[in-house]
Every structure is written in C-alpha cells, then in structure tokens.
C-alpha cells in the first residue's frame, strides 16, 4: 500500500451495528431529521400537492423532485442554499396505480419529466430544525424541459444538430442527474448518468449512428418512460441526434435563478457519476470523472488556462485535454491524453464519443467507477468501484477485455473496492501516479480469500457496493453504499445500505449511519457552519419517512445533540 500521508483524523463517534428495519439510525449523541421530501412545496402556490395520490401534473415543477442524489451546499448572501439532484422517477408511485407505471398521455410524461432533474433551494435552520425557505428567490426547479446551452469543442457539431436546434448549441433538459461537483468559482455541477434510458425508437434507427447508440445503450424500447411515444424529441427514429445532447456535465449558477444551465462538452460524454474539481499547483483546473458502467473508464480533464479568484472563468471547463486512466500491475499508472493524434478522431468526436476514443488508447476497464473524492490533507484521490459481476467473465460494451488484475482484482466482483491514486510531484495535472486499494469490501465471515475483503474489513464494518463519497474538512472520508441489502448469503451481516467513515491514514473504517430498508444512501454535504451534515436517502422502501402512505425519497439533516461540529 501507499505510505501513509497526512493526518489521522480519528473518529468523533462510536460505530453502530447494521440494521434491517425501515428507519434511519445514527450513533449515540447524534440526531437526524427530514429537511425535504419528494413532493414538498418549494413555492407556496404548490401547497396541497397530494403525495398519497402521487400528485397532480399541475405544479409538479414547483415541488421537491423524487429520488435525491448528489448535492452541494452554497453560502450566498448569508443564506444557506443547496443544489440537489433528482436522478430518476418511480413511475409506479407517480402515476395512477391502474396504469402500472405506464404514461397514458403526454401529460403523464410531462409530470414524470418535472419531478426529475435538479432542485436549487434555500433552507434555513429554525427551532424545529432545518426547513425549506418556501418562495425564496433562490428556489428553482430544473427538469427535463429546461432550456440549456451546449458549449465547448463539440458545440455546433453536426452530431448535435436537430430540426429544433439547427445550430447544435441549445438543448432542453438534463437527464439522469447522478453525482455532483462544485467549482472553485461557486457553481454547481450536475452529472448526467443513465440518460440513455429516456430514449426509444418508433421505427428504424439510423445505421451510421448505430455504433454510438450501441456503446451508450440507446435501444428501441428505452427503460419504460415511453417519452418517445409522446414527444418526437425522444424518438431517435425522428430525432436521431437528440441522445448526443445528453450525457454531459451541466453547470448551474445557484446564485442566479434566471441563469441558463450550461452543458460542457469539453468534459466528455459518458455515464457521468460525479465531478471532483481541484486545482493543480499552477492554477489549472483538474476534473476527475467516473463513467459508471461495467468495464468503462476513469477520466480526467485538465484546463489549458488557469483559475484565479475574481478572474473570468469562461472556457475553463471546455478548453483543455481529456485523459483516461491506465492502471499498471506495478501500482503505477498513467493518464492517456485523448487527442486527434492519439485517437484519429476530431476534437468534437472525442467529446461526443469519449467511450470509443478511450477504447482506442489502451485505458483500463474499471469495475463501475462511481464517486471520486480528493483528500484535503494530502494530494490524493479516491474512486469507488462499486461492483462488476462480469469482471473476468465478459467484455465491456466496446468489446474491451475486463481482465482480472490491477485495481479490479476479483472475478465476479460483487462487493466493490475503493482505488486511491497519488499524482507524482503532488500535482493533480501530472500524467503519472502511484495507486493502491484503500479498501476491498468483502465478507470475512464467509470467505478467507479475496472475497473476504482487505485487512481493514471486519465483522463490525461489513458493507458492499461503495458509491457516494466525500471528504469532510478534517480529512475523514465518508463512504455511502448502493448495494444488495438482502442481509443473506454473500451479503449476510451487511444489513441495509449505509454510510461509513474511513480514516485515510490508518485505513480504519467504521459505520456511522444505516438507511431504511430498500434505500440507497447517496449525496453528502455540510452546512456552512459545519454543525449539520446533509445526506440523501434515495428510493426508500416501506412508508419511510412518514410512517404511512408512499415511501418518499428525502434530504435529511444529521446533527450532534450538543450542536458540535460534524465535519
Ligand atoms: Fe447514479 Fe452510478 O450512480
Ligand atoms: Ca451513484
Ligand atoms: Ca450505484
Ligand atoms: Ca441510484
């Protein structure tokens, strides 16, 4: 392993056991409360939104959306603002039961579209806890029909042009909003992941575009949203280039509710998990990005220009070089530049078909890269490789081998691991690095081989499928899970999905929180005073959190009973 660097942070709480119930559990001395639930009004004209009925179309773009995911907090004019993703929508709970989740008309479709995307909202802490500041001037919903700009090297390219946008520079909506990022200049980044599932085809799919559709999972039936039945924009037979206008990272200014979100083509097109933005010593902007699909890649963008506080930021996320990682078995690695010289593709093609470009240069196929986070106390980055049941057994979607080895050391990887790399010269823009595995999840109560996990896994901290991840300001790494919560077989003793904290120096990992049965824990940020930790609960089961009626994905706040610092 890499030699320990930085400061051991120590744990300010005692670990808690696993749970299989329908509640949230936090350690002794901590309390939690709901901040906002799916359907809660952001504006007073949306009061009365009926959650038991799944809610009407009217005002569905004025409420907190469903299935929270990545989030970031902002201090703006002394107010606490949070920008938070709504990754996808549960069709069955949002449409009348008799329809079994199938939209019956264009209005059903519109309702589903309204409940996904992003919420920007002001929240305030009161005697009774944190609550949405209803009608705040910062409150805003961004959804599947919000106008966006397309900028960067691919803007205006033929592959981005449609009848509605012959210039290839303006699109509608953001899709599959998964992880998040925050720029040094105070904007929010929302990352488009499973955008492919919203598209379908009423007839033939254009043959020359087939390789791209195939690599990105665009299929005639889509994933059941049926948008293509009601809107030609989502029908690739009628609008073949529309899928190329999704799969990007989108920048949103949370301080200006009238601003137009911007899709940055320079950051590449794939199933983006999150965007970890750091600065190189010389001020260049470095963005680390995972592509969450079995056997896809880990990417890095390095800007041409440098960032300085107060200077213009135009082009910083577009003019630069996209790289993809190769991890070698000797625990070193290299960032491989994706350029016209290395790929034979044009700059715009590299942006639009980043996956195909990456396959051309010998990048390492990974076990589903999810969140990437950097350590505030050391120049090192961590990436959750959530799992990959086909490792060692199949090819990736581009025909690339998923050989066992390097940072993906187990065939049929059902538990996941976290890879860590340290750039040479303490420079995130350096092209070479050393790497190790911070942790390999596993089940040592069942296995004494690699499936038992690394040495820092024990009966007291079992988990599978690490996904969300963030460092707090003191240097603890918080790990959220999106795995199997059956608590049986290979997953015995792991309980519900959860959040753990890790010490990057000692490697020790202990459990902080467990979520309600059925949920995934995803999204983490802190209040400006660091006395509240905000956590997202996605797709809970049962009747959480209301105790009756439909389950509601929610943003929760976790505090210490003594109102002390929580990170
Ligand atoms: Fe939306 Fe890869 O998680
Ligand atoms: Ca995720
Ligand atoms: Ca996941
Ligand atoms: Ca999810």
Strand proportion, as a percent range, falls in: 25-35%
The helix fraction, in percent, is: under 10%
- Give start-end ranges of low-pLDDT stretches: none
Average pLDDT: 96
**Annotated CATH topology of the largest domain:** Neuraminidase
**What would you call the shape?**
globular
Query: Between the first and last Cα atoms, what is the distance in angstroms?
Result: 26 Å
Describe the biggest sheet? 9 strands, antiparallel
Number of domains: 2
State the total count of DSSP E strands.
28
Computed structural class: mainly beta
| CATH class categorisation of the largest domain | Mainly Beta
Pfam families: PhoX (PF05787)
Organism: Antarcticimicrobium sediminis
Protein name: PhoX family phosphatase
Model description:
The protein has 567 residues and is mostly beta strands. It has 2 domains: 30-193 and 247-560, TolB, C-terminal domain (Neuraminidase, 6 Propeller), CATH 2.120.10; 194-240, no CATH class. The chain has helices at residues 91-94, 106-114, 210-216, 227-230, 340-343, 347-352, 354-359; strands at residues 30-37, 68-76, 79-86, 117-126, 129-132, 140-142, 147-151, 170-172, 177-182, 188-192, 249-252, 262-264, 272-279, 284-291, 298-306, 320-327, 332-338, 369-374, 381-385, 417-423, 432-440, 466-471, 477-481, 498-502, 509-514, 520-526, 533-538, 554-560. The strands form 5 sheets. The chain has a 9-stranded antiparallel β-sheet. It has a 6-stranded mixed β-sheet with strand order 8-7-12-11-10-9, with no helix packed on it. The mean pLDDT is 96. One calcium ion (CA) binds at residues 178, 273, 370, 467, 482, 522.
């Amino acid at each position: 392993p890499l030699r320990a660097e930085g400061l051991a942070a120590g744990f300010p709480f005692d670990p808690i056991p696993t749970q299989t119930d329908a509640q949230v559990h936090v350690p002794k001395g901590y309390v939690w409360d709901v901040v906002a639930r799916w359907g809660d009004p952001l504006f007073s004209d949306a009061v009365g939104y009926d959650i038991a009925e799944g809610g009407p179309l009217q005002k569905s773009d004025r409420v907190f959306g469903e299935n929270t995911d990545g989030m970031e907090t902002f201090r703006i004019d002394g107010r606490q603002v949070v920008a938070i993703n709504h990754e996808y929508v549960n069709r069955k709970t949002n449409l009348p039961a008799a329809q079994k989740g199938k939209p019956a008309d264009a209005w059903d479709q519109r309702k589903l579209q309204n409940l996904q995307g992003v919420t920007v909202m002001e929240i305030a802490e009161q005697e009774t806890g944190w609550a949405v500041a209803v009608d705040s001037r910062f409150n805003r919903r961004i959804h599947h029909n919000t106008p966006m700009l397309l900028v960067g090297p691919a803007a205006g390219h033929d592959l981005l042009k449609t009848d509605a946008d012959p210039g290839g520079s303006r699109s509608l909506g953001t899709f599959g909003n998964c992880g998040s990022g925050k720029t040094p200049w105070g904007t929010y980044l929302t990352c488009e992941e499973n955008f492919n599932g919203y598209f379908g085809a009423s007839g033939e799919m254009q043959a020359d575009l087939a390789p791209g559709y195939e690599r990105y999972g665009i299929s005639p039936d889509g994933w059941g949203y049926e948008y293509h039945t009601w809107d030609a924009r989502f029908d690739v037979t009628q609008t073949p280039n529309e899928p190329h206008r999704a799969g990007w990272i989108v920048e949103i200014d949370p301080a200006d509710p009238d601003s137009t979100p911007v899709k940055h083509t320079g950051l590449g097109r794939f199933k983006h998990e999150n965007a970890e933005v750091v600065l190189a010593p010389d001020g260049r902007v470095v963005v680390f990005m995972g592509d969450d699909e079995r056997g896809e890649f880990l990417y890095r963008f390095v800007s041409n220009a440098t960032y300085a506080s107060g200077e213009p930021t135009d082009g910083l996320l577009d003019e630069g070089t996209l790289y993809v990682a190769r991890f070698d078995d000797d625990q070193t690695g290299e960032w491989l530049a994706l350029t016209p010289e290395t790929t034979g593709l044009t700059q715009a093609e590299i942006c639009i078909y980043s996956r195909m470009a990456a396959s051309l240069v010998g990048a390492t196929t990974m076990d589903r890269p999810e969140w990437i986070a950097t350590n505030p106390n050391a120049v090192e980055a961590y990436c959750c490789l959530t799992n990959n049941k086909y490792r060692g057994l199949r090819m990736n979607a581009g025909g690339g081998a998923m050989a066992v080895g390097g940072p993906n050391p187990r065939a049929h990887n059902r538990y996941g691991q976290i890879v860590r790399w340290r750039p040479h010269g303490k420079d995130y823009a350096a092209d070479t690095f050393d790497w190790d595995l911070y942790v390999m999840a596993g089940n040592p109560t069942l296995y004494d081989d690699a499936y038992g996990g690394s040495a820092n896994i024990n009966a007291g901290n079992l988990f599978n499928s690490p996904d969300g991840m963030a460092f707090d300001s003191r240097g603890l790494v918080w790990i959220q899970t999106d795995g199997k919560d059956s608590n049986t077989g290979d997953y015995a003793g792991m309980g519900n999905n959860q959040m753990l904290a890790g010490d990057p120096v000692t490697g020790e990992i202990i459990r902080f929180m467990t979520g309600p049965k059925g949920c995934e824990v995803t999204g983490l940020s802190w209040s400006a005073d660091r006395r509240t930790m905000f956590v997202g609960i996605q797709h809970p089961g049962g009747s959480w959190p209301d105790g009756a009626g439909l389950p509601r994905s929610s943003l929760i706040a976790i505090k210490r009973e003594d109102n002390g610092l929580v990170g």
